[in-house]
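PROTEIN DATA CARD
Card holder: Fibrillar collagen NC1 domain-containing protein
Chain length: 293
Origin: Medioppia subpectinata
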Amino acid sequence: MNGPPGEAPPIPIEMLAHNTHYTHNTHNAYNSNPFVNRRKRETERNDSPLDLKETIDVNTVSKEELRNKLMTVYTSIYAIRKEIDLIVSPEGSKQFPARNCRDLYSSHPTLLDGWYWIDPNLGVNSDAIHVFCNMTAGGHTCVAADKLTSNKELMSYKKERNERWFSSLKNGYKITYEEMGSVQLTFLRLLSKRAYQTFTYQCINSVAWYSQQSKSYDYSIKFLGQNNQEFGFRSVIKPEILDDGCKLSNESSTQFMIQTTKPMHLPIVDFWPSDYGLSTQQFGYNVGPICFH
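Structure generated from the sequence above:
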């Protein structure tokens, strides 16, 4: 199987040097070439700078005109070749999105961390999505939650008789990813082997994981992932605790990291707080992007 096409060859120096004269042998070579006088085949490229119906007859045009026509032909071929290269090895632009950041890294390993366009379902580029590519890690694709649901400022909540998910509390809501779209998110999961996401619980006198006062995990929060997968202290898959500042009774934060080898379990769509309800208690949150690799 042949690999992707290489770089298009440079423009011949003879065609670039305006003061260079064609030799007699060069002129004869053009005369003897059976393709020079062949009528050009029509193509579907209406924006081509060439008149593809035109016949080049070296017996009736000057050397300068012939050089200009050949230069135009070569320039057009070079432009088409470059466009084919971008299709085979997309650059991560809106017009030429990659399938995911891993593919972009494989084709262009010198690219830096940053925002690029990808199209996991390989459809039309109109549904391409803007994502952050962690090239330092080898091409991790990171997608942010919708801005309106990705965070919540510190505030007090009334505690009902039965504990419940944050989305069911007054002024609560689910964490959504509608800007990305469910179809692209599904394809991105299918193309990945692992996924991870961070979550920061902001607190004032509200335990997030371990309680220093009760010496227990009775007030630890749990998370709800895609497909109703739960992550918590008593769950099969437990979150990793990066920093647990909320274990003390003060204003602080606790940072969680959820990692899984089953990308269909993420992203985080809800969480279940436990230690709240008093007038001296407040909590908020900030959910990080979900990253696939």
